[in-house]
């Protein structure tokens, strides 16, 4: 990604932001910094405050207290944000009776874009991989296709800050490729992107920094690499040419604990699951090689980012991904 310009103001700067809905404190003293050219992930359990924070960035809500600056401009107590901000929360707003092309053309007209900007409709559709269905009515679109069309609508504005709520919802592999390519391309050109996701693989692939919310508070904010380091000891799954020997060698490796499971002697393709630090795992790999045991697969049972998330939020499972989320 493009190195951020230290002379430019941050795309987002929040200090002590709070927001309540009746007796529910959705955001409680939230600090957030997002630099230009950065893809910043926002993650948390349902109801943690992600949607509320995204809504503030898009001018769909106002904070009760605290300071919020977007693209160098202070945001007051009115439903407005500076030009250059685009995105969607809880899915894009679209006209189901219109085609994909007509939806984007209508948006261009409503926003008073000149002919040159309106001509970008076809380019936006191509970027998100919807050229072949540009003249189909979107009432028949899948969730993933609607998400991509919402992204295309945001591209029309040439945003300097793009805010996306679960952009990978409903995407097939091809759609995911298109969306990832657009997001990384925008960041490379200096656009700041803030996206929420329950998918740790998307965060790892796209984001340089991530913020984790729990019950309206920030429990972590910083580089993804630092978050991964917070995961500590992980469970790793090994597939080898000799599971019995692998089980024995793992048991003999200092710092490793072999997790209970089925007897490795029952099946030739049985896996072995071990828990321990990376240094101990490295030692196990060396021992396997010396013993002539082929290592066919090695990977964490739970991804490092997910493990860190679970530890920081004090929960045992990731939230189920849903099409709609609690607005708080």
From TrEMBL:
This is ABC-2 type transport system ATP-binding protein. Residues 12-240 form the ABC transporter domain. InterPro entries: AAA+_ATPase, ABC_transporter-like_ATP-bd, ABC_transporter-like_CS, P-loop_NTPase. Transmembrane segments: none annotated. Belongs to the ABC transporter superfamily. Gene3D superfamilies: P-loop containing nucleotide triphosphate hydrolases (3.40.50.300). The keyword Cytoplasm does not apply. It comes from Streptosporangium subroseum. Keywords: ATP-binding, Nucleotide-binding, Transport. GO terms for molecular function: ATP binding; ATP hydrolysis activity.
